[in-house]
Design brief:
3 copies of one chain form a homotrimer.
Chain A (H helix, E strand, L loop, with lengths): L2 H10 L6 E5 L3 H12 L3 E6 L13 E4 H7 L2 E4 L13 H4 L3 E4 L13 H8 L4 E4 L6 H6 L7 E6 L2 H13 L3 E4 L6 H6 L9 H30 L12 H30 L8 H8 L1 H20 L5 H16 L8 H27 L2 H6 L2 H27 L16 H5 L1 H14 L1 H11 L8 H6 L4
Parallel strand pairs in A: 1-2, 1-4, 2-3, 4-5, 5-6, 7-8
Antiparallel strand pairs in A: 6-7
Helix pairs in contact in A: 9-10, 10-12, 10-16, 10-18, 12-14, 14-16
Chain lengths: 466, 466, 466
């Protein structure tokens, strides 16, 4: 369906075809040239050896660097940073031209300055614009695709940027101006990043999962094997997983709220909000969203694992066995109303908690959180977040019920997993309750509005962030 | 990982450090100053008492208002509106300067004009730009975070706005230009809003939930207690909730579609689309999306409550009892094919309805609906929406089946809850069918394309919106 | 809540009210005029018969085209393309004016050039801007609503576009500049599109669903009826659907990954990445996202259909029957550990596969994929995608278990549905394994970095895309 469109474009824009220059006949240069030609531009390549530079997109011209640079106003530099030095011989020809740096590095922090900044220093007379470097090779050759719809650019000259904006828009991309050339480093680091802010939460999640898996493996499977000589290893796949997932989920959810509480106490203790938090607390606070989303993932798995319980072979077998044995032994079982209340409340708390959990997750979607005012966002993440934590913790307490007191549940003197996982959320909620006390709350609010406790004058002055 | 980046920025941009001025040494002023200093700007504070204005971020200068204003081209005004009058003495110094108004009010509609408009009137020679007021204090001090990624700005001077855009971009924010200073009121109201368009639907949802909860509590629990002297109050947690949620969900879903139908009949009756709808209908139509999303929330809870049925203690107990009693009484039960058809159809309708419900919800996400053409959006929301309503209504009718006719279900002469909840959707679907009749549809289409019934010429002229 | 805002705007902006001109008094012209008047603009209509042009929004003036054109700097052309020719008489009055073309056509590709381009050719002296044509009539009259929040515009004059941007922003819309007037055709086609990229995947999904529905209907229902004279048609609603949905889902998921594998082998065979793929492969690759999302939809239905199994009448009846018959025949059933392992693994694979499936779906949301670097996006879609495919395929193999070998499962010499659906995913995974072999992987990586196999020099040159 796109085809006829391109056809018309080529035909209609014939009289106004603009000429663009590309330095570099490598993969990036060829892909870009191909796409520019398709969109109706004329393209000239600048090459060291114009007559033996390998195959180029049909319709493109090849010239020496000098001739190519003079023929066009905009030059795309598709060359590795290591080879920028040849440009020094072209200082005259590049004067006043728009020089688009599309380069990326293979690693972060190899050079002291960004490629584009280095380029600008090399050719001060040119208007360097950093752009197109965040796109995948595929989308450069074929047009915008999923994660490559946006061209980020930066540069010191507004006019130069405008020219690049127009070309990128014509190629079908959305353009986001990131300001002056000092943002180039950020743009050059972007394609290299692989979920940097997810690493810590992911490691934590894996660590907790592994710990509780082996803890429960020993308490459940190994214990039964050793003490009762029964092999229940088949329970690993579902029963054990369905203990590990909710435990990890609840701990990680409470770890989302712990740093906020710690920060509040630190501010109360210091009597100011302008003193910087220790680094570990800063980093912890910055990954709360990721912690919460991982916790939601584990909670979702817990929900699915719970819902398939009645269709498991093991469960069906046991229910049939229990019915049969009841009949054979002619038992009369009495309906236990307390049990019914407890089990139903347990499920209701779990469902309501999971519902709110999902709401928190949805409000974390970029397009949703962007549409919220921060008052709305903090209402959801803080008020509803604590309600979620309360529901989920209460759900776990209901699961435990009176098992906390029965010694038989402490196999090999170890507490069951769900008891361990209740520690952090209980502490968080207790500390939060302290903060909500009117007198504490008043002090904290004052501090957060900028008030500072100034016991000795000089000390307070020093406390300001440097 | 961000640290080295800031480090380089500070080092690299050293020679071109720009000087910005901040009026006001309160919380907002200090937080902003701290962030500006971190990003590589030089900052000078203007203060009434430059020598006793309390602690300020290290690296910032303090001067009198006059001196500070003269030293910089851009001045951030971090002062409450009540104290703007001191600026009148600075009219000369502020002439031609960019004056960034970051103020917010504590309440809406306290003043007849927006703070920024008032400021512009006070200092007509300055270029007032409204900006940064929608950010949270945290993100102002620490950089963009979830709901504070976007800086909205407005102002009458394009050049002044451009300068603020550059600073905001350098601080890491995305900037959205909202036009001239007449948009300032909207920007100032934004941080105060707490889900304004959700209030009506939320109240409705709470009202319906409360009504049906007590209605069913009386019909189910109280009735059984009074008439049969049995305590089944444990059913409140799951059984009762799982009746209330689907009922409220279906009613709210049909209330999404009712205003559209009412509007169509109103247009048919009036013979024009240019006459404004009554206020209540306008307000109702504007909250259809929120009604639908709440309905989806209730439907999701209904799904979860339904899926845990087989693992409830009460259900397992009753199934075992029934099997045991069958054996003891040596009953031979016959498989009822009609029952199998009915129950399976009931579930299938529910699942398909819920699937479409989810689709409607997903297409309401801002980023998804922005990517759709309105033809696509209205196809989903209207065509698939009515299909959803049909599936869900049919699901409820299948639940009722033949109970509609049995008097034993009318306890204390009240109809069961699901019968009550079928009223609105049935009416909506009947009215929609009328609208789909060819003759009615034709008239409506003509009206919606701009045609007007002009019985008496003058009357029609009057009908135009004023 | 919006009311007071408009009130103030009207009052405050009174002295600076700008005058805009609208040509055309049809539906679009009236709706636009009404909205402009509400926002505080003055509006003058240009009409052929200024004294008998029907009812217009109160407050608007009507003049002849000539007079109206001269009075304003911006003219909105709300006229069908067929009637543009009257403008030729106004060439003098329109010189230097901004002419906003809001027109749409009823069909695509009717005219050789876009309306706006035709208009520019007709009135070369005017600055034509294409805008507002993608909005729904409702949102034009009432302000931004769900799928009509964005005004796309294009035009050759930056100043003319800026004027239209300001008006659109004042009306409350977000503006997206799509470049020069050559983008007009795309903008004019946008409102006509109804999920073009979903058509092929939807047709495929319907085809597969229909095929497997009838295939399984014959194998399950008809076979049982013919061979055993039993009517099990009630199984259509849930049991049959729950076989068709997972089958279609798995096939469509594997069809997402097949084109990538085919493309890799094609590149290996051709020894270059610069030769264009055949058209069918291109089209296939462009609809992978839609294939995947449909597959996710089917998988979600499969999950819901599976989870309601234990509350079906048919299942409860059968379980009770089996318990009763066990007791009557005094069977002693032995717990089968292999069976427990197998069933639990089957469910665990399914849940983990579905969890990853959901993750893929979430990362396809526009706002999420825009926030990812393409390295992150391709990690999710490729690495996690293949893991999803592996889990789901393994889940299906576990479902089959040893049934592959038992002839009794080949009713009427046809294999069960799940065997058929395993063909494509197994092939895709086998081919992927070949590609992952070190030697193959090395060649492919080289080719994807731009290397070309150049057996005969001339041949390779020809191979470049034309």
């Amino acid at each position: 369906p796109e085809k006829p469109h391109y056809f018309w474009q080529t035909v209609m824009t014939a009289p106004e075809q603009e000429l663009l220059c590309i330095f570099g006949t490598g993969d990036f240069g060829r892909s870009l040239g191909q796409r520019l030609l398709q969109t109706g531009y004329r393209v000239v390549y600048g090459s060291r050896r114009p007559h033996s530079c390998g195959p180029l997109p049909q319709g493109a011209q090849v010239m020496s660097h000098e001739a190519a640079a003079q023929s066009a106003g905009v030059i795309f530099l598709c060359v590795h940073r290591e080879n920028y030095d040849f440009l020094e011989t072209l200082v005259t020809q590049l004067k006043g031209k728009v020089l688009v740096d599309v380069s990326n590095n293979l690693k972060k922090n190899v050079y002291p300055e960004a490629n584009a900044e280095y380029l600008q220093r090399l050719i001060p007379g040119a208007h360097v614009v950093k752009a197109f470097n965040t796109l995948s090779a595929w989308s450069l050759q074929n047009g915008p695709s999923d994660a490559s719809r946006q061209v980020y650019l930066c540069g010191n000259s507004a006019e130069a940027k405008q020219q690049v904006v127009e070309t990128a828009t014509k190629l079908g991309f959305n353009v986001l101006d990131r300001g002056t050339l000092s943002a180039a480093r950020e743009l050059e680091d972007f394609p290299l990043q692989l979920f940097p802010e997810w690493r810590l939460p992911l490691r934590l999640a894996f660590g907790l999962t592994a710990f509780f898996f082996f803890y429960l493996l020993i308490r459940d499977v190994v214990y039964t094997y050793v003490e009762q000589d029964k092999d229940i290893s088949f329970r690993i796949m579902v029963s054990l997983a369905n203990k590990v997932f909710p435990i990890v989920s609840l701990i990680m959810l409470s770890l989302c709220y712990l740093p906020g509480v710690v920060a509040a106490f630190l501010q109360l203790y210091r009597g100011t909000k302008y003193k910087r938090f220790p680094d570990w607390l800063d980093r912890w606070m910055l990954c709360r969203k990721q912690l919460g989303l991982l916790a939601l993932g584990f909670a979702s798995l817990h929900v699915l694992y719970t819902l398939i319980i009645p269709i498991r072979y093991y469960v069906r077998f046991r229910i049939a066995e229990s019915t049969i044995s009841k009949i054979k032994e002619n038992q009369t079982s009495v309906f236990d109303t307390t049990m019914a209340w407890r089990v139903d409340s347990y499920y209701a708390m779990g469902i309501l908690g999971f519902g709110l959990y999902l709401l928190l997750g949805i409000s974390s979607l970029p397009s949703v959180s962007n549409a919220l005012s921060w008052r709305e966002f903090s209402f959801i993440q803080s008020k509803l977040g604590y309600l979620t934590l309360f529901f989920c913790t209460f759900h776990t307490y209901l699961y435990g019920w009176d098992k906390f007191l029965r010694p038989s549940y402490y196999k090999w003197y170890t507490p069951p997993g769900y008891m361990l996982c209740l520690v952090v959320p209980s502490v968080v909620m207790a500390l939060k309750l302290v903060i909500l006390l009117p007198c504490v709350d008043r002090s904290l609010t004052r501090i957060r509005r900028g008030w500072e406790r100034t016991d000795p004058e000089g000390d307070s002055k020093k406390s300001l962030l440097t």
